[in-house]
Amino acid sequence: MNKKTVLQSILALALSMAIISCGTSGSSGNSSVAKNQSEEDSLLNLVQYQTFQYFWEGAEPTSGLARERYHMDDIYPSHDKDIITSGGSGFGLMALVVGIERGFITREQGIERFEKITDFLERADKFHGVFPHWWDGTTGKVKAFSQKDDGGDLVETSFMAAGLLTVRQYLNKNVAREAKLAERIDAIWKGIEFDWHTKGENVLYWHWSPNYDWEMNFDVRGYNECLIMYVMAAASPTHSIDPAVYHEGWTNNGDITNDTTFYGLETVLNHYETNDSPVGPLFWAHYSYLGLNPNGLKDQYADYWKLNQNHAMIHYKYAVDNPSGFEGYGPNLWGLTSSYSMRGYAGHRPDRDLGVISPTAALSSFPYTPEESMAMLKHLYEDLDTLVGEYGPYDAFSLQEDWYLPRYLAIDQGPIPVMIENYRTGLIWKLFMSAPEVKAGLNKLGFTYE
Asked: What CATH number has the domain spanning 3-445?
């Protein structure tokens, strides 16, 4: 019996005991409600456990960090198993905190893993304190993501930095071992030169290379997944940016507010990458908000809860409408984001739909669309369980094309346990938002927040 089957059996036993208990007291109506709640809680526990395991059991052993991808259907290309991702590992740090709090591992085990990761980050290649997109996990040397992307990646670094601050806030400063670890994490965070990535201009640039300098020339302007980069840059106690970098760069002098209406809902901010893109892939509503709490988060440009909730609901309504008639789309099968596809890695969204559903899209939207996300979760585990493996739902599938791959991507698995935990307890939001630098950065940029 494999690990997935064992865990499902344990949870089924716990569920049956809960159902028996529910049936012995209270009215039949209350019993029915309690039974349904127990079933849903058990299912949430299961998917959190499985996706957490990607970052625990499935981690690259030398660094303790997340592999970029994990294939269960074939032998890895010679180097794939050693490639680790900085951004996906930042999500993984948050998932490890969830795992400790949910009892999947002990606190002692978690601290040991955090220490291993910190050891690696202290010695691994950095560029003005900025992490590359990929490392070789066995050596700590940069692994080029593309020809000229062989140096600092400020977006992926920001995802990692958010994870590091979450861990730092989680550590008990009254315990000597944890206090020392917090100091080491703090030194890594303070070494990130966010201001270097402005090139002296009022915008942040994504990449810098020791071999190609600024040749990739990617100035990051919203709206997309990169809000957290500007927040972290403003929050830096050592290499902070001026507010003009946010207002002139990220918001493009306010052009970011040129929104539209799609499926009867305001997009709130301008999602256009091209003129035919009314709404972006759903990871835009996840990556920046694993730690950054959108509840009550506002600035002069947007209400970020409304932005993200509308974004998720637009995807849901699109699937229910199903204008292309794709097999399976509907109230319990929805959500488009960047993932694997029949044509390789692709950015899925309503105007670029190949009939591919990516489970992370709906499952990581639990805080915004709890009923709609639960319907998707139940459908996956009750009706489409061949699309679920050891580390949770596989990355993507198409019922239309009768296609799926038993593969995982760190950046897709990571948001699932974290955002589900934010839905259940708000844990990661509370930790990240408790960092004094985060509050200072948000204040500096003109945000209000809870």
From this structure: 1.50.10.140
